[in-house]
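anyone else get weird line breaks when pasting these?? whatever heres mine. first is seq + tokens for prot A
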Amino acid sequence: MSSFIARATFSHQAQLATTAIVSGVLVAGAILGLQTAKKRYRVQDLKASIPDVDEDHAATQINEYGAASDVFAPSKEDEQSAALAARARIGDYDDDLILEQLARNRVFLTDSGLHKVRSSFVVVVGCGGVGSHATAALARSGVSKIRLIDFDQVTLSSLNRHAVATLSDVGTPKVVCLRRRLEQVAPWVRFDCRNELFGAAVAEQQLAPWEEQRPDFVIDAIDNIDSKVALLHYCHAHDLPVISSMGAGCKSDPTAVFIGDISASTDDPLSKSTRRRLRLLGVSSGIPVVFSTEKPGPGKASLLPLPEAEFAAGRVGELGVLPDFRVRILPVLGTMPALFGLCAANHVLLALAAYPPPAYLSHKRRDKLYDAILAALQGLEERLARAAGTDATGLRLPVTPADVAYLVEEVYRGRSAVSLLPTRLALVRWRKPPPGGLVDARTPGLKRSTLRLRELVCMTKEEAVRHEAQVLRGESEAEEVWDGEAVRRVEERMREEEAFERFR
């Protein structure tokens, strides 16, 4: 073995191979060493290029909501108020001072009522004109825990109606503005600020308990229909007390502002759309709302249509700050949102303190009337079935008293579409059903009418009798029996209902 090694060592080929291997190792080591040295040099050079960050550097100016500018730097007063609020929230604030500040509420609500208010947790969704005034009233009245939810920022146009915003707040989140200003009024109030958009997908988190305390009340001050309906439906389904503000835009009469059940609200497009969408979700009443009964008139403010040029340019929905949000500036008198917000806060405070509630507007539902209209519709469908040669025994209608109420109150505004009379109302088919198209007998043992809500029209009983005789069982078309204005009105209402049908 040793002789073999000796021979291999002195072999010329072995020497060459050994030399090549050693040379390769040395070259590879040199290359790797050079690369490592270059990397270290570049890292050190990069680090050296980064300036030292002192108190005056721009990077230190990022504030609590992400703005990298000192434009919104807090004033000395803001800093002092924030420091005082921080102390008050941990209990370092004389309770006698708080009671002195709340003395007028105390003698009105009594010690028991004020204690309930001070122990409460209220959520305000929407912190614009309505929500800011509601929040300010709650904080000034002693509510100790307030959660604020709003995705928007204060703008110059907000200042005509916002409760506390100033020029220095323009560009800041509305929830931060409210907390910062109200801490100067009631430093003991604790604010949970959510700079977020409310939606059905996040409702559970946004309305969740705070420190194991469930919200005692929710104020809906949203002006977007989808978010508003999602909030009200969630609160109704989870037994969370809620009050909703309807539209303050284009309103100017303070004496026409009421609080009542949502089923009793009238003369407000936002209220109408909200009622319809909620009814389709199975909620027809039980939600108090602030609304105005003021009617539009000549010379009054109105929502102007978008210019034709905007429609020609593309999808107008893309003009909004968010999808499906308003793309027009609403005409708003700055005093009206304040009234709506203060009415909502007043309702909440009385409810929290268990104070005797005012006599709010009651339900507009007329259950006996709806039952009678449904019974008459049942009889009409049975007569039409028999006239078509079909046994009408056991015929069932896919219509409920709630559907009748929806059609009468929401679609036809409680009036006949023909004469506009509000008494002795009935529902009838507008068109004669096609032969064999009145009864669905595909399920053995079940006879179901093919009737759909958008096929029904509201008339007086006398008009319904005439319509049945001449159109539904006769040979005439509806256009031949009724005048053009009535036909136009019916078709408009039916198109309206067809548009809402997609939410079912």
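and prot B, same format (seq, then tokens)
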Amino acid sequence: MKNITGLLLLTLLFLACKNEPKKDADTLSTPSPKYETYNYAGFTKEEIYGFHKRIFEGGNWTEYGDHERYYYLNFSQIQKHSRILRSDTPKILEETPRDDVKNFITSTDLKKGGGLSLNDYVQQVEVNGLIIIHKGKIVFEGYPRMFPTDLHINMVITQVFVSTSIAILEDRGLIDTSKPIDYYFDALKNSGWEGVPVLDILAMSSGIDRVPLETYEVSFDPIMDLATAKSAKPSGTEFQWSNADAMVLTLLVEKISGLTFRDFVEQEIWRKIGSEYSALLGINKNGSSISYADGMSTTLRDLARFGLAFTPSGRKSANPIISDAHLSKIRNVNKNLKETSRNFKETIYSSYQWGAVFDDGDFYKGAHGGQGLYISPSKDLVIAFFGTANVDRERSQLSVISRQLSKSGLFDLE
């Protein structure tokens, strides 16, 4: 009986709480938004109760479908976190919807939804939200399975916030990415990390074997735990997915800047991009930042504002966040990391934590469940999206569609 009473009180508490973004005062208001919500109504009270009942009884969110989507949209209710405060002067995004983008026909060879218009695709396939910005203006924006003000988990897209932080310090002459990581951390000498250049870690090619996350997340000396990792192959020779790379880069940002990762991102990135809402950042049991897995939670527009920082429209200020040198280094790829992507069906490279850098200079970062950020500096184009895989573990192919959109001619600059 006590457990049932506790469960009811817990559920009532969650239902009474407001979402974190609504706590921001004086947020940017849009009198007549031109985005589409497709009559999305949110979760029912019964669905919310059912989700929290599973968590209360020891269940987890990794079940895909609506359970996972609830987690993605309500991270602050479930996981320990800190807030990254928004900008005092939010960047206004002009809305200029384009029918030719809305009616763009997806490729017929997609696993699901092929041949549909983009507008129909996002409604019928596992998409929570999609925004497309061209020349600094929103040309398409839709929210079929979330609210525009929801903070949605970014997952490993957060890793490019880590690499951007490294690049900012690199621009200031505080980090030399050609130096080995043990130059900055004595504890990594005589370990698998010894001699591994920071640049190879940025390219997700450290050669380090997988590190047990559970150990790192509770350790009060995480760099010592990382020092126990073994080298599986020479660095710079092969792309490999390893959260350990983002972990050690996060610690490097903190050591060189003297700030926590949260504070660095807030001070040097989040407030400077003109973010409209404060973001959330997952926190481990030991107080360290979860920059390598669950990561940050943001609105879709604010993620797109970050993407804009890499485009001509977002780099007009005298001191842009993303320097010419940073852009050049992203695209100056290590040719050893070349691979033929099964999704894109063309050659891609990994660089500065971006998972796909294309021969034409576009780059993309995807994440578990269907998150993505696609940037084409040459076309002044940003495509950002959120999604959740269904119970059959099927997710949208907006990554492929983003590439098709970039190459379609719809966004070629005059």
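btw re prot B: The chain has one domain: 2-166+256-407. Confidence is low (pLDDT under 50) at residues 1-27.
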